[in-house]
Amino acid sequence: MRIGSSLVLIAVGAILKFAVTASVSGISLSMVGVVLMVVGIAGLVISLVWPAPLGEMLCITARVETMWSHLRDATHASDQIVAVPPGSEIG
Q1: In the chain, where are the structural domains located?
Q2: Distance between CA 57 and CA 74 in Å, rounded?
Q3: Mean pLDDT (the chain, rounded)
Q4: Which of 6, 11, 13, 38 has its CB 3.0 to 4.6 Å from that of 33, i.e. a possible disulfide?
Q5: Count of C-beta atoms within a 10 Å radius of residue 43
């Protein structure tokens, strides 16, 4: 959740809590507004404290792992065992 979506949740929650006077049977719109505001505030705090979105970190991790696997494969290519038929010369 980024800052924009957190602010939207807070705004929608505040509208439901303070501006909507309609009622729905079985659901308290005021309580739904409070829950949305709390989730929005929590998301806002997390997005301000967290250094980068998790998706970006996973993408960077995948790129680094791919780079290391290519380097490892290139390094170990010279260590591969080559089958030489009997009677042929190596070199």
Answers
A1: 3-76
A2: 26
A3: 79
A4: 13
A5: 19
HEC states along the chain? CCHHHHHHHHHHHHHHHHHCCCCECCECHHHHHHHHHHHHHHHHHHHHHCCCCHHHHHHHHHHHHHHHHHHHHHHHHHHCCCCCCCCCCCC
Instruction: Please return the burial class of 1, using the count of CB atoms within 10 Å of its CB with bins 0-12, 13-18 and 19+.
Output: middle
Provide the pLDDT for residue 1.
Answer: 64
From 31, 36, 30, select the one nearest 10 (Cα to Cα).
Answer: 36
Angstrom distance (rounded) from CA 38 to CA 11: 11
pLDDT 10s digits, 1-21:
688 999 999 999 999 999 998
At 44-58, the pLDDT tens digits run 998 888 765 555 666
Give every CB contact of residue 15 below 8 A, 6+ residues apart in sequence. Answer: 33
